[in-house]
What does this fold into?
Amino acid sequence: MKASFRLVTIAGIEIGIHYTWLLAFALITWTLAEGFFPDAFPGWSTATYWVTGVIAALLLFLSVLVHELAHSLVARSRGLPVQGITLFIFGGVSSLGAEARSAWEEFAIAVVGPATSLLLAAAFGVGYWATAHQDSPPTAILAYLALINAMLGLFNLLPGFPLDGGRVLRAAIWGATGSFYRATRIAAGVGQGLAFLFIGWGVFQVLTGNVLGGLWIAFIGWFLNSAAEASRQETVVQETLRGVRVSEVMERNPEVISPGFAVDVLVRDFFLQRGKRALPVHEDGQLVGIVSITDVKGVAPDKWASTRVAQVMTTTPLWSVSPDSDVAEALRLLAERGLNQLLVVAGGAAVGVVSRENILRYVQLMSDLGVSRRPGALGRRG
It folds into this structure.
């Protein structure tokens, strides 16, 4: 999940907020100010309840951030790249640049989050116990944070992917079977089963009069089911692409253009007539750049005839892969860089183009043929 805006950088990890976080913050603040705190600590003014609610909601999301930082820091200590943390309506998510390389690594990264939440619950619980004789907002906030962190830690230990407990389950199955893909499929299936239980419980709550709470529970179930299904589909794609090389899916012998061509020729003969959106630029048989519709946008149409491709082409960075690269690596690079296609380069020349469409077409073909992997493909995870 991409952040709507960046908040801060902690220990070299970018922290962002998705716009749905604002909805969650408002809803939690309202629930605390109008429900939880008045019921548990009666007699305060309305303003006190709302200020306490705002502070408690902010500290809740700070607790969620600490939970996610624990995941990210352990992952980074294991050598896995951490792309950032995003806070959103259901809490937070750590974006890692690669999967764990072993069952033990998966377990360590997964279990540290709930463990951190339970430690926070214990710390806040001690604070509440020490101040329980005071009927004050700080005491109320400590009580809430102890309760909510305990709930957060225990909820995340439920054995349904993509919850942390589901990742622990995946690690256990992976360790027992030696198959990362089989472990993911099973954990995702358990996650979907858990999600349907949440949806059913939410519907029951709505029918018995708890409309807001029931809708929220059902919404959580819907999110868990969607995330589990996405993980299952991603696993199918990864397993299908295991051992497949870029040369097997790329478009070969792409059309190229010389840096000396005028932009009007590029637009007329390639963009308009042939439907190209980007072209490799070759000089003396070597790749020197790439020119796309985006590059041309900055040139006024009446200047196209007098402007050369060399003046508008992109020379760096030129994201590319080799024909022998894994397709899975190409797909990961496309996703990380937000690209539609990659150049395939060999001997300094562009020998092909690989796009998301090429890769997904290959996966669909394998699915239509009823096979999950190319015959003879060699994989690393079993």
